[in-house]
Design brief:
By secondary structure, the protein is mainly α. The protein contains 22 helices and 6 strands. β1 and β2 form a beta hairpin.
Length: 577
């Protein structure tokens, strides 16, 4: 059976499972739509949170970044796992104790201000739309290759599936769907990683194979990759080229942004007790760690395979020297190159007219390869069985769709609960609020699809921008709301607005207004757009404290509320009153 047929079967079965779960777990009340009724077991919630978290950026794009940039790409792994430690220790128990459905709800009540609530809604929606653009792009990339349709068509198909189970099931349907999606995506990620590790190093554990010798006798994997990279003009694979400050800022923005992402925070309201929220965060880190510790190995395997497939194998001479591949005939190119060429994500330009492909980091290069294809193409490059290739396609879709659903839920609850119920139309019924939530999700899906068809960058970079926006806007307001009894509404609102505007303006300037200037020489202190969220966070904190010093005191009832949040007692049942 060919790859396309198997892909249709496996993807079709997984989609049927997701939709079946959504029908079974259909939300019948606002509490079930927003927080799944508050009764999800911690281990199951950990799996759902991991699936919500491990988006197309993690599954499809992250290994591609590490594969193309080497050790510089590891900042994403550090930031995106460290954020859960910060969440578990500093935020989750307190927000869960407070007991409201959403981040804007917490900010609106803690800062006793509808203005603060609306600013938080705007921040949440802005962050979620930035994030979801990457997910929809990931869906389009998967469909374009494996179902042989245009990327735009793939995005539309993904929109239809997410629309069905997100709008119908709400958080209840999404939670149980995401448990299934985690199982699909982690199996789909680990199976090819284990296959390739055995083939290249003889070790079935990729994390150990990463530091092992190659079975072909060409030395240790990373030493071989360093030699290949330097010979081809890419620079040593294991040596970073980013400045220390930029590495620190990117890691910080991703870590702090994780702790400020609305769709992640809301997941911890779905468990019964405050204690369960900490346990749930711990399980989430375990489930994420399985993939994230595998990514560096998979990236390295893919890099070696890709270079040697295009350039020809590296030959070890009797005197110990190595002769690197000099190019492979395009006429004899493996099928994966021709397949991905159809999508436009690989292109070949025969500069010297010799009919041979050559891939390098200098003027000799004749191949343009989109980094987002690496995980999806990896099984084909390694010549794995067709069912593994189809399984990876299903895993990529599971990752993108699970996160898209979580983000759409935040958008819908921000509009229906925080904007309508809490601010503009407090007299609406539960049924009307649910209608607003589903309507907002439907509009959100359409806008997300448009962003997926016209994305601002490759998948993981788009997602990194969302983290910077979360770090510079919502995170400081939440932390100050929990740990500072003196922070007033004026300070919090000013901080969120200034932090968000500063970070968004920096990103928009270098990515849209003047992309030609997007280089370390022109960045502020050499900090890239991916890392500017850390500076935006500091700007937020500074603005908030400065404004709070020259404005009014915090009311006593709010001070008492902050004290009660910080006392570790009670279940903190999620409510909306």
């Amino acid at each position: 059976m060919d790859v396309q047929t198997l892909t249709y079967i496996i993807v079709g079965l997984t989609f049927a499972m997701y939709i079946g779960i959504a029908i079974w777990a259909r939300a019948g009340s606002t509490k079930e739509f927003y927080v799944a009724g508050g009764g999800v077991p911690p281990v199951m919630n950990g799996m759902a949170t991991a699936a919500d978290w491990m988006s197309a950026a993690s599954f499809i794009s992250l290994a591609g970044i590490v594969s193309f940039t080497g050790s510089d790409g590891l900042v994403y792994l550090l930031g995106w796992t460290g954020g859960y430690v910060l969440l578990a220790l500093c935020m989750v128990p307190y927000l869960r104790k407070f007991g409201k459905f959403t981040v804007p709800d917490f900010i609106g009540d803690r800062y006793y201000s509808d203005t603060a609530r609306i600013v938080a809604v705007v921040c949440a929606i802005f962050i979620c739309f930035t994030y979801i653009a990457g997910q929809m792009r990931g869906v389009g990339v998967v469909f374009s290759r494996f179902l042989e349709v245009e990327i735009e068509t793939g995005v539309v198909i993904g929109m239809a599936v997410v629309f069905f189970y997100a709008v119908l099931g709400g958080m209840k349907g999404i939670t149980y769907t995401q448990v299934a999606q985690y199982c699909v995506l982690i199996f789909a990620f680990m199976v090819p990683a284990i296959f390739i590790s055995v083939m290249m190093t003889g070790n079935p554990i990729p994390q150990i194979g990463f530091g092992s010798e190659m079975v072909d006798g060409s030395g240790y994997l990373l030493a071989k990759l360093d030699g290949l990279s330097e010979e081809l003009g890419f620079g040593a694979y294991t040596e970073g080229r980013k400045s220390t400050l930029d590495v620190f800022c990117i890691t910080g923005a991703l870590m702090i942004g994780t702790a400020g992402l609305p769709h992640v925070i809301v997941r911890f309201f779905t468990v019964p007790k405050v204690k369960d929220s900490r346990i749930s965060a711990g399980w989430t880190l375990v489930f994420i760690g399985i993939m994230y510790t595998t990514i560096p190995a998979l990236s390295s395997f893919a890099r070696v395979n890709m270079i040697e497939t295009i350039n020809g194998p590296t030959v070890q001479m009797q005197d110990g020297s190595k002769v690197y591949g000099q190019g492979t005939s395009y006429a004899d190119a493996p099928s994966w190159i021709k397949n991905w060429e159809k999508t436009g994500l690989i292109t070949f330009d025969d500069k010297n007219g010799d009919g041979k492909m050559f891939y390098s980091g200098d003027e000799r290069n004749e191949m343009k390869i989109d980094r987002d294809i690496m995980v999806l193409a990896n099984p084909e490059i390694a010549d794995l069985p067709a069912w593994v290739i189809a399984l990876v396609a299903a895993g990529g879709l599971a990752a993108a769709l699970s996160t898209s659903a979580g983000l759409l839920l935040v958008i819908s609850t921000s509009v229906s609960h925080d904007l309508m119920k809490k601010t503009l139309r407090p007299d609406i019924s539960d049924k009307q609020e649910l209608m607003w939530a589903r309507g907002a999700a439907a509009v959100g899906i359409v806008l997300a699809g448009i962003l997926g068809i016209y994305p601002p960058d490759f998948v993981a970079a788009v997602v990194a921008f969302a983290f910077g926006l979360a770090a510079s806007s919502l995170f400081p307001a939440i932390i100050m709301g929990i740990f500072s009894k003196k922070m007033n509404k004026e300070g919090a609102v000013a901080g969120m607005i200034v932090g968000l505007v500063f970070t968004a303006a920096y990103i928009i300037y270098f990515k849209f207004v003047n992309p030609a200037a997007n280089s370390p020489d022109n960045w502020f202190l050499g900090i890239s757009p991916e890392g500017i969220g850390t500076i935006g966070m500091l700007v937020n904190f500074g603005t908030a404290f400065a404004v709070s010093k020259v404005t009014g005191d915090v009311p006593q009832d709010v001070v008492d509320m902050v004290d009660s949040i910080r006392v570790p007692k009670g279940a903190g049942e999620a409510h909306d009153h």
